[in-house]
Write a structure and sequence with these properties.
The longest helix is centred in the middle third of the chain and has 21 residues. The protein folds into two domains: 76 residues, Arc Repressor Mutant, subunit A (Orthogonal Bundle), CATH 1.10.10; 194 residues, no CATH class. Helix 1 packs across helix 4 and helix 8 packs across helix 10. Helices cover 35% and strands 18% of the residues. It is globular. Strand 5 and strand 6 form a beta hairpin. The chain has 319 residues and is α+β, with helices and mostly antiparallel strands.
Length: 319
């Protein structure tokens, strides 16, 4: 008896699917491409939460756009031990960026940084701010908004590195000119209280994946201790006003677990002689490298309380 003809299975891959035909781009696709110029990396569940729509339809479309090279699935995500069970992470592909240019959209090409886990954490946290603001009826003040503000000094607007806040610190009795730059772009939350606009402005966030020391004696190394010292200098010197035109500012510190957050808060307490600081806000968020299962997308960066040292908890909606 002749062997049954082997049925050839269609090519499929979770990591590099092949498009079965050239997609006709829709306005929803263009909205997705624009989203991925603001967020270098986003998991599929965050994309669906931000753009809304049917989950299964979105998953099918994401697969199709990836197979046609409009999107990419960063290979670094395959290093996670549960890679096959986590929501897939997407980035904008070359064809997606070109499609925006062909439609006259003025978008900057997203730049992937060296540490995938850190960049992904930063993007997820900022996406949580966007979700929380949208669902709570408050407004996210974007970096584009800040650039158009009349409060922004012209010198900062023209600077090649406007995110860098210049400050002077004294080390071993010698003044040193340096700077501090947060993760992500400066942003703010605007809400209306008794017909009055209230602003909470941040130089970005500090996303800590647990890879740098908390309390390092060597000031030349990057550490949480060094960041505390530099941001406290920004506050004392009023550099948030002179550089950004901010009336006040807050520094969200996001780390991987409560134990590490408590260690960070203990160091801040020691630096400030036990008085603490109102500008540092502490919250946890599992990193890509964590064994903890990531929770569903939410706006908890806006809706939930942040812990502080020496001050009551802070909330963007009620403080």
């Amino acid at each position: 008896m002749a062997a049954a003809a082997e049925t050839k299975r269609p090519y499929t891959s979770r990591w590099k699917p092949k498009g079965d035909h050239e997609p006709r781009l829709s306005e929803r696709d263009i909205a997705l491409f624009k989203l991925l110029t603001r967020y270098t990396y986003l998991p599929s569940d965050y994309i669906i939460a931000l753009l809304r729509g049917d989950k299964r339809a979105w998953q099918h479309r994401l697969k199709h756009l990836t197979g046609s090279d409009y999107l990419a699935r960063p290979k670094q995500q395959r290093q996670h031990f549960h890679a096959n069970y986590r929501p897939l992470v997407y980035a904008l592909g070359e064809r997606g960026f070109n499609a925006l240019g062909e439609r006259g959209a003025e978008c900057e090409r997203p730049r992937a940084r060296g540490n995938f886990a850190h960049e992904l954490m930063t993007n997820e946290v900022m996406a949580s701010f966007e979700l929380g603001a949208r669902d709570s009826g408050v407004r996210v003040i974007s970096w584009a908004d800040i650039l158009q503000s009349q409060s922004l000094p012209e010198s900062t607007r023209r600077s090649p590195k406007p995110f860098h806040i210049p400050i002077t610190i004294t080390l071993d009795g010698q003044p040193i000119d340096t700077h501090i730059a947060a993760d992500g772009a400066p942003f703010g939350i605007e809400r209306v209280v008794d017909d009055r606009r209230v602003y909470f402005l941040c130089p970005g966030i500090e996303a800590d994946c647990g890879t740098e020391p908390i309390d390092a004696s060597d000031f030349a190394r990057s550490s949480i201790y060094k960041k505390f010292v530099l941001y406290l200098a920004v506050e004392v010197q009023g550099a948030y006003r002179s550089h950004f035109g901010f009336p006040s500012f807050y520094v969200p510190m996001i780390t991987t677990n409560e134990t590490r957050a408590r260690s960070m808060m203990d160091v801040l307490s020691r630096i400030t002689g036990g008085t603490g600081s109102k500008i540092f806000l502490f919250k946890t968020f599992p990193a890509f490298t964590s064994f903890e299962k990531p929770g569903p997308p939410s706006g908890r960066m806006v809706t939930d309380d942040w812990q502080r040292v020496g001050y009551p908890p802070f909330n963007f909606l009620s403080s």
